[in-house]
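**User:**
My hope is that you can spare some time for a protein that puzzles me. This is the protein in question:
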Amino acid sequence: MPVNLSPPASLLPVAGVRLGIASAGIKNPGRRDLTLIELAPGSRVAGVFTQNRFCAAPVTLCRQHLTSTDTIRALVINTGNANAGTGAEGLQRARQTCAAVAQLMGCATENVLPFSTGVILEALPIDRILPALPAAQADLAPDHWLESAHAIMTTDIVAKGASRQVTLGGRTVTVTGIAKGSGMIHPDLATMLGFVATDAAIAPALMRQLVKEVADVSFNCVTVDGDTSTNDSFILIATGQAGNAPIGAEDSEVAALKAVLSEVAIELAQAMARDGEGATKFMTITVERGRDHAECKRIAYAIAHSPLVKTAFFASDPNLGRILAAIGYAGVADLDVNALQVYLGDVLVAEMGGRAASYTEARGAAVMRESDITIRVVLNRGSVGRPYGPAIFPTITSRSTRSTGADAVRATGCRTQWRTPDGPGRSFSAPESPACQVSLRNFLIVASCATAWASSICALA
């Protein structure tokens, strides 16, 4: 079940965006599984996509269309079929879908972006999708964001959406986003589709910059099972309908714009983390006062990658020497272990090369039983990293699998997600540090239960 997650009660309309939903019966009869998004003329669109070389046909087509034109008038999204591993025929079917949408919307085929999510290695059923497109067009409305969040779900349990408003250039600007994702989650995006739209006017060059930077602090920090999906896509839309002067890279409003876009994307990514299949815990790892970002990340990754650390946290077992071991083999050659400190939540666990005098196993066990836990490593060897500064911290969600006997249990992974120092949903300044990505492969454990996790670490400036 999702961890402390409920669907949004409502989402704010974005001027210049209309959404329509229809049932194509792609996988399940009667399921509303087709979404059409119409964009006002003059809208700007930028995207980032999966790094998987076996990328799906719609990803290939999206890249081609975004490269060939600055004009995007519609997005079409289907669930139930990924149109991946389908070769030239899959690409042709994606083109046919775009052409059909273009005919309905009165635009060119390259003005349409296609997205698919679902089962791989199955042909896209355009015989069901194309006849359903007119119904999706007839359903177009500016307030159908929440319905669309439900329509794009696959194995998700909870619909994911977020909205914010901010004043830029004397104008009220709205940002609304929706996303889906539950399994096959790994950095370089994840098995996810994310769409964030704003009515702000944004210069094209800044759009391309922002989509990458926002993805780096949100969707690129999500991992569940070590598998990078074939269909990952994150799209940023700016309709320019708010009436502000177009914001360029050198303008004073950039920081506030980036912050609000990031906050929406982060909330969506956190919702993906909380909706992890069997999710049990959110873990935050911070490494502070290092000499440089690289060593902070190296140590944080070593902790996050450790199977022994993972199993300890899943079992709420305060066997915290496993954290020290991971720090020790992280590859920081001149690390002085006598100078560093390790905290579990607010509890000092280790200092001066060993167990802290104030630490008791009872205190550690109490923290381990919580669903949100922070591991802090204070290296005390430099100025990189300050505790809880104005940056975004990663959150890790464990996901576990339990067997009925002492069988080999496949540890299926977890998700990471960013949050503000003051908790999810709070305002924060623009991120100061780059997001980092973690690679984790599935592993086997002979036990009655097992867990896997991973993390993305931000070395704080």
